[in-house]
Amino acid sequence: MCGIVGYIGPKDCSDVLVSALTKLEYRGYDSAGIAVFENDAIKTVKTQGKLKDLEDKLKSVGKPQGHVGIGHTRWATHGEPSDINSHPHSGARVTIVHNGIIENYIELKEFLISKGREFLSETDTEVVAQLLDYKYNGNPLETIDSVMAELKGSFALGIMFKDFPDRVFAVRRESPLIVGVAEGECFIASDVPAILKYTKNYYLLEHDEIATLTKDGVNFVDEHLDPIEKELKTADWDMEAAEKSGYPHFMIKEINEQPDAIRTTIMPRIKEGLPCLEECGITLEKIKNFKNITIVACGTAMHAGMVGKYVIEDLARVPVNVDIASEFRYRNPIINEGDLVIIISQSGETADSLAAMRLAKQKGAKTLAIVNAKGSSIAREADMLIYTLAGPEIAVASTKAYITQLSVMYLFAFELALAKETLSEPECKRLVSALIKMPEAVSFVIKNCEEKCKYIATKLITSESLLYIGRGLDYALSMEGSLKLKEVSYIHSESYAAGELKHGTISLIDNEMPVISVATQTDIIPKTISNIVEVKSRGAKIILVCTDVCARGLKDGVADYVIEIPHTDELLMPITAVVPLQMLAYYTAINKGNDPDKPRNLAKSVTVE
Ligand code: F6R
Which pLDDT score, from 0 to 100, does residue 502 have? Predict the structure, then answer.
């Protein structure tokens, strides 16, 4: 997704902008550019490619010299990646960077063309730049306000007016934007890591608020142009957390951070051995009457919801539907007043998840958000909120956010089961104490399985396709394993409920096909093993992820490779079993020479449909 930065202050603006953009690379991008006031003229340098390409271009054409500017990493939506479609975009007296999608850009473009305007690029962003220029009346705030009234869709904009070389303006609707402040300098950015090198203090821009940045500070107005006071926030994580700390990639760093991420997420929510979610607005009284639950999310977050379904249904006996947000929002879902809709999202800005939550609210449901990014849109709009305290997740492939989403799902399921009186307090205490031990179990798996995963990954690189199979919770987990592998290794894979294989998919099996089987649930292990035997006898190479207990009972030759993980409470097994799946994906990507932190075509935060 596009990333925006802006700076005003005593430092070399071009350097600050490029350095801040490097901290937004995780969002995914295909082009980059900056625009800086140089002697009261706006100088723009932009290029298709990576920030390295931009730096090369800045060297060859000359870096703009100045102290006020904006920058951008583009993830193409309207118009292919190209120099001309890269941001910043300009009208005669205005230059902008944009994240989001202007839905009515075609009609606005037609209008502007009818007024004699000409366009250089295919982007929706240039339409906004031209519209600002067309409407410019000498007053930037009035101009921005009147353009905003005409825009449909989502946007975060950094704006510079040629007549105001000492200012940067910023505005947002739907797409995220923050304003950082330090002594004698101000910043704008799509996300906090971009400014952490310079300051930890920032404001969250709300919908339709406009910020005016000068070197002396920032002022905010609302959509009526009335001044507003905003609360200054302080980032509670530092550059160190947003950097790789010696790991070769963020993905493996974040896999290693999982024990701490789980601990940080669960420990403050446990009191006297029982879950305590009061701080998140959740009490037994408040949740005891929910009769139907729908979990809505995308991708990995949706897979965490799949595990949540098994656990909630098992413990609290409340029916749970899991839905993909982009499907949910367009199919008139059956949600009744008094239902609970849980939205899971790392970024808290995923456009489909946000829209699904709003729809659920319109239909009278209570909403509970499980979100990692503090102050994000989903976090702010939900009725109840549990933060996953995973810290910043930079790698595009989600790992530590997923594991903390699982941890929160468990805590919530325990609390709901207590409220529904389907779980006794002693039994709940037993589960909570098993959950408290999971960080240690995850550390053990990381330490003891990494070498094996590394080795097995060398065997996967020539495969064109893989199957992941499992039953029950193991099936829910297989979905995540399969997604992880696809996104970073670019090897096709599917996850299947093991019992479904013989209804069609088994015809794919030949001796080229590796099958990764997850078997952690004792009562159904014999069934999964018989599925393994079926595929093995058709030539498949079997990689079995199972508990040490299960491994001890295995007959010789059932699996080609066995990854053993310690047996814990079986309901909680997905927390440990996901780790080898993440590492298999990571090392397969490495062996193929892929960058696992920035897989092709993917963006970290999907703020457009
Ligand atoms: C995969 C991955 C994505 C996200 C999905 C939802 O590793 O990260 O599938 O899970 O795009 O994003 P959030 O959680 O930010 O709503």
Answer: 86
